[in-house]
Specification:
The chain is α+β, with helices and mostly antiparallel strands. It is built from 3 helices and 4 strands, in the order E-H-E-E-H-H-E.
Length: 104
């Protein structure tokens, strides 16, 4: 069964010296995901108030195929390379389904 919409919640931890650059990279990926990908309806970059080196990405795609297509884009390649080169740690990633509300 395909999840629609397909929501991704990813949490990253940055070294203090990489935080600003990684935040900028996340914002770049966010803008291009929503702007360039018809299957991406939302991509928010969130920062917890009490955890200075944590960045959370909240992404909503039409379905799993749209998310898979996202991982093939040039902006995702740039993001992925930045994760590696900046020493970013992926703390968790969750794939979520909307069970109530106005989902199609």
């Amino acid at each position: 069964m395909s999840i629609k919409p397909f929501t991704v919640l990813a949490e990253f931890e940055t070294p203090p010296e990489s935080y600003a650059a990684f935040l900028e990279l996340c914002q770049y990926d966010s803008v291009h995901s929503v702007q360039d990908e018809p299957g991406c309806s939302c991509f928010d970059v969130l920062t917890p108030e009490d955890e200075p080196n944590i960045i959370v990405l909240y992404e909503v795609y039409a379905d799993r195929a749209a998310f898979d297509a996202h991982k093939e884009t040039p902006h995702y390649a740039k993001f992925s390379a930045g994760v590696e080169s900046m020493g970013i740690t992926l703390k968790s990633v969750r794939f979520l389904a909307l069970r109530s509300g106005s989902a199609a």
